[in-house]
Amino acid sequence: MAHVKVNPGVCGLLSVIGATADEELQVRVTIQSDCPAIQAMEEKLQGLDAYAEVLGKWGTSTVSRTAEQLCSHAACPVPSAILKAVEVAAGLALPRPVTFEINSD
C-alpha cells in the first residue's frame, strides 16, 4: 500500500491518501481528509486502472475528472497526490517525496 500525506497550504485541510493495487494493477484508493470535497472523491476512486490513470494525458484520468466535479479549487494539490499514490501502489514509480516551496517577494 502506498500512503501520501498532504498539507495543501493555506486552507489547512489535511489529507491522507492510501492506494492498494491488485495483480491486474486495479487500484483501490482510500482518503481521510478534513476537506469534504476531497473526502467525497473516495467513493468514485475504486477499481482504477493504474496505467490509464498515470500514463494518460493530463485531465483524462478518473482522478482528474472526479476532482473537476467535486473540488472547487483548481490549484488543490491533493488530486496530484492521489495520482502519485496510485502510481506507487501499482509499482509504476518509487516512493519519493514531492515538494512545493512557495514564496512571495
CATH topology: Sufe protein. Chain: A
Mean pLDDT: 95
Structural class: alpha+beta
Flag low-confidence runs. none
Query: Helical stretch count?
Result: 4
Count the domains.
1
Q: For the record, what CATH class applies?
A: Alpha Beta
Query: Termini separation (Å)?
Result: 40 Å
**What's the overall geometry?**
globular
Note the topology.
Elements: E1 2-6, E2 15-21, E3 26-33, H1 36-41, E4 48-49, H2 50-55, H3 62-70, H4 78-89
Antiparallel strand pairs: 1-2, 2-3, 3-4
What does this entry look like structurally?
- By secondary structure, the protein is α+β, with helices and mostly antiparallel strands.
- It has one domain: Sufe protein. Chain: A, CATH 3.90.1010.
- Helix content is 31%, strand content 21%.
- It has helices at residues 36-41, 50-55, 62-70, 78-89; strands at residues 2-6, 15-21, 26-33, 48-49.
- The protein has a four-stranded antiparallel β-sheet.
- Strand 2 and strand 3 (26-33) form a beta hairpin.
- It is globular.
